[in-house]
Amino acid sequence: MSTSVLVINCGSSSIKYALVSDRRENRIYGLAENLGTAEARIKGITVGGEPLELSIPHADHEKALETLLARLANYKPQAIGHRVVHGGTLTKAELLTPEIIERIVAATPLAPLHNPAHLVGIDATMRLFPELPQVAVFDTAFHQTMPEHAYRYALPKFFYTEHYVRRYGFHGTSHAYVSDRASELAGQFRQGGWLSAHLGNGSSTCAIWNGESIDTSMGLTPLEGIVMGTRSGDVDPSIHSFIANNLGWDIDKIDKMLNKESGLLGLSDNLSNDMRTLIEASENGNEDARLAIEVFSYRLAKSLAGLSCGLPKIDGLIFTGGIGENSAYIREKTMIYLPHFGFKLDKDQNNTLQRGTEGRIDVGQGPQIWVIPTDEEGRIAKETEQVVQQAKKLDVVIG
Ligand code: ADP
């Protein structure tokens, strides 16, 4: 029998949704945006594959979800899976119970922009669909297998013991999906050592051993790590005092600069946070764009080389995310900066892979190199189904 899960990702004024059925071609997806304003609308793809655009003036999250579910009519889901950015120390997807909701609330100081929006969505779906089992799938959960030497910061101990300051990591759903998929295609499902590079607007790297995350580039927040669209990634932590003392900026202004005005956007002198625009500008001789691409690729390679310390051996490397899946140019640049591990890129094969195509791009010697289009919604749906099945077996009261 075909089952379907409604996957929801709630932001402060938007809801990304996807109805994932085990028949993948039937996926319905879209975005409700500008919620709470006169411009609120739903844009997406219908069950027939047609574009959908629906104005829902002043609709809030609950109204938007109600409209969505009414439109799905005959395709009513069997469960709802919520993407939740921060699960604190929760190690796996969980059925939404009052206790788990409390844990999401408790993790709010660690994800002040994301978790409150997820909670609005959870509250709305709980009220609208009390009969449906609902599951939270956390971006942080996959990284809870990191050993302590990978997740602790070299700070006074009480920050960790009393304030939970540690490295958590994000993009866990994507790293889990692509590493499972690549190792499966390689004929060694969840075996061996893999490096994964998720390169989108937010970007992170991960080292995976026998199917478990053992280190990752993001930390307490998604700001740590490699260069991103508008996030700086790693900088000297003294930058806050340097800027405060010399420019008189306060913490909020510095935080905003590091999260929203840095990365590719900052390096390119505000030209763009979009890699396509930068590649084009660089080809036309723009020096800032050229440097932004160079810093991005070098810092990515450096991060992957650093993460390799956690792996007893390297079986393969995976590129994913909008940049990783589409840009043969960035993949090639990154591999040039990774000369020491025996990777051998097949340039022709590399150039053929983009727009949602998965495949192997090494010459067949040394560690493998894969391009795997990520499928976070599919993974969330799968984990949701597994949690619901498990709960049924244990006879937990759901709905
Ligand atoms: P998000 O993190 O918002 O989900 P995506 O994974 O969609 O983002 O990735 C967006 C990034 O992918 C942008 O920087 C975009 O320029 C880049 N991208 C998409 N297609 C290409 C391409 N053909 N070449 C280079 N970069 C690309």
TrEMBL record:
<dbReference type="GO" id="GO:0000287">
    <property type="term" value="F:magnesium ion binding"/>
</dbReference>
<feature type="binding site">
    <location>
        <begin position="274"/>
        <end position="276"/>
    </location>
    <ligand>
        <name>ATP</name>
    </ligand>
</feature>
<comment type="function">
    <text>Catalyzes the formation of acetyl phosphate from acetate and ATP. Can also catalyze the reverse reaction.</text>
</comment>
<feature type="binding site">
    <location>
        <begin position="198"/>
        <end position="202"/>
    </location>
    <ligand>
        <name>ATP</name>
    </ligand>
</feature>
<feature type="binding site">
    <location>
        <position position="376"/>
    </location>
    <ligand>
        <name>Mg(2+)</name>
    </ligand>
</feature>
<dbReference type="GO" id="GO:0006083">
    <property type="term" value="P:acetate metabolic process"/>
</dbReference>
<keyword id="KW-0963">Cytoplasm</keyword>
<dbReference type="GO" id="GO:0005524">
    <property type="term" value="F:ATP binding"/>
</dbReference>
<feature type="binding site">
    <location>
        <begin position="322"/>
        <end position="326"/>
    </location>
    <ligand>
        <name>ATP</name>
    </ligand>
</feature>
<keyword id="KW-0460">Magnesium</keyword>
<keyword id="KW-0547">Nucleotide-binding</keyword>
<feature type="site" description="Transition state stabilizer">
    <location>
        <position position="171"/>
    </location>
</feature>
<dbReference type="GO" id="GO:0006085">
    <property type="term" value="P:acetyl-CoA biosynthetic process"/>
</dbReference>
<dbReference type="InterPro" id="IPR004372">
    <property type="entry name" value="Ac/propionate_kinase"/>
</dbReference>
<protein>
    <recommendedName>
        <fullName>Acetate kinase</fullName>
        <ecNumber>2.7.2.1</ecNumber>
    </recommendedName>
</protein>
<comment type="subunit">
    <text>Homodimer.</text>
</comment>
<dbReference type="Pfam" id="PF00871">
    <property type="entry name" value="Acetate_kinase"/>
</dbReference>
<dbReference type="GO" id="GO:0008776">
    <property type="term" value="F:acetate kinase activity"/>
</dbReference>
<dbReference type="InterPro" id="IPR023865">
    <property type="entry name" value="Aliphatic_acid_kinase_CS"/>
</dbReference>
<dbReference type="InterPro" id="IPR043129">
    <property type="entry name" value="ATPase_NBD"/>
</dbReference>
<feature type="binding site">
    <location>
        <position position="83"/>
    </location>
    <ligand>
        <name>substrate</name>
    </ligand>
</feature>
<keyword id="KW-0067">ATP-binding</keyword>
<dbReference type="InterPro" id="IPR000890">
    <property type="entry name" value="Aliphatic_acid_kin_short-chain"/>
</dbReference>
<dbReference type="GO" id="GO:0005829">
    <property type="term" value="C:cytosol"/>
</dbReference>
<feature type="active site" description="Proton donor/acceptor">
    <location>
        <position position="139"/>
    </location>
</feature>
<comment type="pathway">
    <text>Metabolic intermediate biosynthesis; acetyl-CoA biosynthesis; acetyl-CoA from acetate: step 1/2.</text>
</comment>
<feature type="binding site">
    <location>
        <position position="9"/>
    </location>
    <ligand>
        <name>Mg(2+)</name>
    </ligand>
</feature>
<keyword id="KW-0479">Metal-binding</keyword>
<comment type="similarity">
    <text>Belongs to the acetokinase family.</text>
</comment>
<feature type="site" description="Transition state stabilizer">
    <location>
        <position position="231"/>
    </location>
</feature>
<feature type="binding site">
    <location>
        <position position="16"/>
    </location>
    <ligand>
        <name>ATP</name>
    </ligand>
</feature>
<keyword id="KW-0808">Transferase</keyword>
<keyword id="KW-0418">Kinase</keyword>
